[in-house]
Amino acid sequence: MREQSNPFVGKNYIPDNTRMAVPPAFFLQRIWDQDALLVVLPSRHVPFAYVIARRKQFGPGLTSAAIETYTQPDTKMCILHGCVPVCMMYRTGSTWDADPIIRSLKARDLWAHGGADKVADQLDEQDAAEKQKIRDQTRDDLWNRSGDAWRSYQHRTGQSNLGSGRSATPKPRKERRIAQTVPSGSTAGSGQFIN
């Protein structure tokens, strides 16, 4: 029984390297359904990897004059085929699963997120929110530290005794102290008697 030829070879798969496995038709169909301008090419630079690129649509994009400025072979290959590189795809295992690739492509699709200006505004808002969160955390930390330092200062200088476990107002003693006479001087309690 003869195998059917893959209808997507030449359509959204460019067999630039004949030694690489050609993705099956169902995989290329899923990529085509995601975006008809996407192209899969075998990588010239990374063994057993594929480059997902997008055909130029509105303008010339990168032209063959730009080939001299690029040293990466996959970028040069994409330019020669009239494409712009999007990402790398690594085939792991013996099966072809398009779902992770499609999820990655959807996450990167600026048009699906409202265009480049809207995405740039969203990123600016995220950056501003992160900076404000850091400012708020720093302010709270400094506020707590200064409060602890003030209470410590008051306790050390005797201005407050709330932090020592004693109450602010001393309780009167119930028993009476008996005065003891203790000899003074450096020899007090040494057992020597000096006349």
The helix content, as a percent range, equals: 25-40%
Placed side by side, the strands forming the largest sheet appear as 1-2-3
Percent range for β-strand residues = 5-15%
The radius of gyration computed from the alpha-carbon positions, rounded to a whole number of angstroms, is: 39 Å
Q: Write the H/E string, N to C.
A: HEEHEHH
Intertermini distance? 129 Å
Count of beta strands: 3
Oligomer: single chain
Which structural class best describes the helix and strand composition?
Answer: alpha+beta
How does the SSE layout of this entry go?
Elements (H helix, E strand, L loop, with lengths): L24 H10 L3 E5 L6 E7 L17 H8 L2 E8 L8 H10 L7 H41 L39
Antiparallel strand pairs: 1-2, 2-3
Notable traits:
195 residues; alpha+beta; three-stranded antiparallel sheet; 4 helices; 35% helix; 10% strand; elongated
Brief sketch in words of this structure:
By secondary structure, the protein is of the alpha+beta class. It has helices spanning 25-34, 73-80, 99-108, 116-156; strands spanning 38-42, 49-55, 83-90. Strands 1-2-3 form a three-stranded antiparallel β-sheet, sandwiched between helices.
